[in-house]
Amino acid sequence: MSPQLLFLENESWLRTVVRSRVSESEAVDDIMQNIALALVRQRDSIAEINRMGAWLYQVAVKQVLMYRRTKGRRRRFEDRLANETPSVASAAQDMGPVERVLAAEKQAHVQSAMNQLDELDRQILMLKYSDGWSYRQLSEHMGVKEDTIEYRLVKARRKLRRILSSSLGEV
Known about the structure:
Blueprint: H1 3-21, H2 25-41, H3 52-83, H4 86-94, H5 97-116, H6 119-130, H7 135-142, H8 146-170
Helix pairs in contact: 1-2, 1-3, 2-3, 3-6, 5-8, 6-8, 7-8
């Protein structure tokens, strides 16, 4: 059975499982997309799965948990940005009022730009630069080669720069 057909046949009850665990409708759609991607990744071993319903349920729950973890990391990252590290806070004391306003605006622009990135780009940037993960850790976590991680980081940084430069151009 093809992954697409399998997904379409089970989409409604999987959506119910996800919706019961996540209240945001956009998040439900993202998680459903991740379930579909998981099916495509496992297409070679689908025929070997005995209890397809149980397996799909596990995939759905795992995707919900991954979403929650990512959302928690993102919230902690944003809190960290909002509350500034002690060195930044002490430097802010040395700043004049104009510099403090500019620093706060810069921080708000970065947060806004991060929110505009897609989930994968946001996740990889936060894990690398906020949590300090190595390329190896990222590759193991995402199930891809380290070269792919390097490429994705470059791509995500470019997107972030592009968003920041366009938003600064509008100001």
